[in-house]
Amino acid sequence: MNIATNAKDDRVVLGCSRPDFEGGLSTRLSWKGLTLSIQSSFAFGHEKYWQAGTRQFQFNASEPLNVLDIALKRWTPENPDSNYPAMRLNNYANEVTDFGMYDASYWKIQNINLDYRLPQSVLDKLKVFNNVVLSVSANNVYTFTSYPGPSPESFSSDMIQGGSIDYSTYPKTRSFNFGIKVTL
pTM for this structure? Predict the structure, then answer.
């Protein structure tokens, strides 16, 4: 929408928050008492509006908010091809525009787990345990994405007008675990 005139005939669809396709992959490999498991998920072909990312630019002349030198690269009649909005005397520059739209496609490694089962020959010598499995795992390992926000999975609202709006909600935490499973 043309935020200077609020012209309704200037409105366009900026994107869709629903992925064109999504899914997951997993594998489990075993060899000589070692078992490696990896789970991942992916979603491609959707967009997200990063509201918190556009807030850092605040092209608003009525308040002392333009602390970044990027404001010098804003749209002006002398700079009509700028990717940054024009300076305003109000908050209209923070309405949803294509300035904050990003491709939210991603591939995420959700979990990696490695187990080691002690060989029966070692257990026979110990004469205490029937089975011992040592394990280490990592959760929320890594997300491959070009999305600049905290996480392409996080969002605060999915509006009827279309587009998922990300207010930089806190992403899922990464965790590491260690375990021992003993059978007597």
Answer: 0.73
